[in-house]
Amino acid sequence: MHLKHLTLHVQEGKDADQIYKEAGALADRIEAGVALVDKGDTTASSKESLLNIKELSVLGVGVILFAMAIIGTFSPMIEFGLYFAAYLLIGGEVLLRAGKTSCADKYLTRIF
Questions:
Q1: Which residues span the domain enclosing 64?
Q2: What is residue 89's predicted lDDT score, i.e. its pLDDT?
């Protein structure tokens, strides 16, 4: 998961909260799981670093499984299992989003 930072500048006023809610709903409709964060919120950066650690550890396990499949001498079924597990770990998020999009009948969206 790649974290992108987009900035929304809103003048303070009675409509600021409504604009914030609408922007969050629109962003979530376009890309599931989007979170809007107040620039002064310090807990957001700690959450991002925890996500990066989790993602990097999953990626590391996938790379290790892939390397084991390449280097090791295994039966074809075990080798396939190692390759498939690495494929799911490394590309699972993209596969999940593609599946959700296909189920929602949005076949022509760009998700890859």
A1: 41-112
A2: 92
